[in-house]
Design brief:
It comes from Spirosoma rhododendri. This is TonB C-terminal domain-containing protein. Keywords: Signal. Helices cover 39% and strands 21% of the residues. The chain is of the alpha+beta class and 115 residues long. The chain has one domain: TolA/TonB C-terminal domain (2-Layer Sandwich). It has a 3-stranded antiparallel beta sheet, with helices on one face. A hairpin with a 5-residue loop joins strand 1 and strand 2. The N and C termini lie far apart (83 Å).
């Protein structure tokens, strides 16, 4: 009797878990295209790429703090002038919809075309 009562309670518990809807406490992320558009509004082509009249791709990584500001920015290019220019242009800029306390690491490729 105890075993069958326990089994019925266990099956009932498992059945309620199947239909449970967990609360979503995480914020929905803005689409990646929105992130790229926001970054593009802050960036101008670095002088090193303008002078060379060549296209270029530069990878950046950063975190967004609770105040929606870009922080801990790393620029990955072989040209130190490009690295400094992009770091100066982006550090502290606000990105709407990305602020968090978790400090998620974002990686973005920036493509520059000659004018």
């Amino acid at each position: 009797m105890k075993k069958s009562l326990f089994l019925v309670a266990l099956v009932g518990f498992l059945a309620t878990q199947v239909y449970a809807d967990p609360a979503k406490s995480r914020k929905l992320k803005a689409p990646k295209a929105s992130l790229e558009k926001q970054l593009a509004s802050y960036i101008s082509t670095p002088d090193a790429l303008k002078q060379a009249q060549q296209a270029g791709v530069v990878v950046i990584q950063f975190r967004v703090n609770a105040e929606n500001e870009v922080c801990q920015l790393s620029v990955f290019s072989h040209n130190e002038q490009i690295n400094n220019s992009l770091t100066r242009q982006l550090t502290g800029k606000k990105l709407a919809g990305y602020g968090s306390d978790t400090g998620e690491l974002h990686t973005v490729r920036l493509r520059f075309q000659p004018e």
